[in-house]
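Organosulfonate ABC transporter permease protein structure dump, as promised
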Amino acid sequence: MTHFYRWPLRFASLAACLLFWQLAATTRLDLGLLTFTYVPTPSAVLGAAWQLLHSSQLLAHLTSSLGRVFAGYLSAAAIGVVLGLAIGRSKWAEASLLPPLEVLRPIPAVAWIPLAILMFPSSELSMVFITFTGALFPILLNTIHGVEGVDPRLIASARSLGAGRLAILREVILPGAAPSIVTGLAIGMGTSWFCLVTAEMISGQFGIGYYTWESYTIQNYPDILVGMLLIGLLGMASSGLVKRLGSLATPWYRSGAPR
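structure tokens r here:
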């Protein structure tokens, strides 16, 4: 019954946010440090979304952004999990690989744009690289945390039963670290979308991030909100998909605490 009461509460919170948005934009609320003078109303945004839905460019924007995000994300997932397993299990790998990665981790995606343009022969590869950097570090750090969090007694027990390195990795480390890895994969998917606008600033053609940025440059304010909300919805849906696939891949892990 607890789950039954969640949905009305969720819808009520969304309705309250929309109501505040409508009132603040309609009355041009000005709080000094925060102003809604130029913020479009939800109805204006809905009209802009309806126009985009019926335009011929929506499919091109979606396919371009999805291709860039998933290309960068899948590359980051593969590299991040492999590096995380190595760093979490090997003191040598931790000493040699983690310091340069920690130096690179705080660098924001926008700071990578000039170097990405110089390094890659096409703008498409540059944009994939930006989404890659956004997803890599959440996946990497959560994998390291998951590996280091595996109970040493389980590893010692497996070793005493004659398990080798590969068997311990496959039967103990990966199952024990899997929940943390799934969390990192879900966060990494969200940060890939977060970096999309930055990545598509390089592009001059298609993409949801490019659509949002172009709307800002021509001062088409409702379309800015449409692009932002579309990125948010796509990011939420793809992160939810990763979590769902992760829960199916880890049937032995269930959180017993009520939520």
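The chain has a mean pLDDT of 87.
lmk if u need the other ones
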